[in-house]
Amino acid sequence: MPRERGADPTTDRVNAFIEADNALNDLLGSFLRRRVGISKRLMSAASILVAEFNLSSHDALLIAVARETRVQHLVSFDRDFRRVDGIELWDGLLLP
Q: Which residues contact 50 (CB under 8 A, 6 or more apart)?
């Protein structure tokens, strides 16, 4: 249920962030999740991906984790993921 609005702008922003965080947690709760520890092996795989696909270190680590967990579909607005073999990017809002 939405909290009262209009009391003051700062409170309204905080309440909006709390509501959005709760909605995101509800959404994520409907998916199977797996916790992956960042190991030396994943970091090494990410380093190779940086060189191979010219990715940022963060993007390369995401791909290394995706490969580790056998995730092939990725939703992102980051077009850099299009360069990666074995990843299907869901970016339907972006033009080629």
A: 56, 57, 60
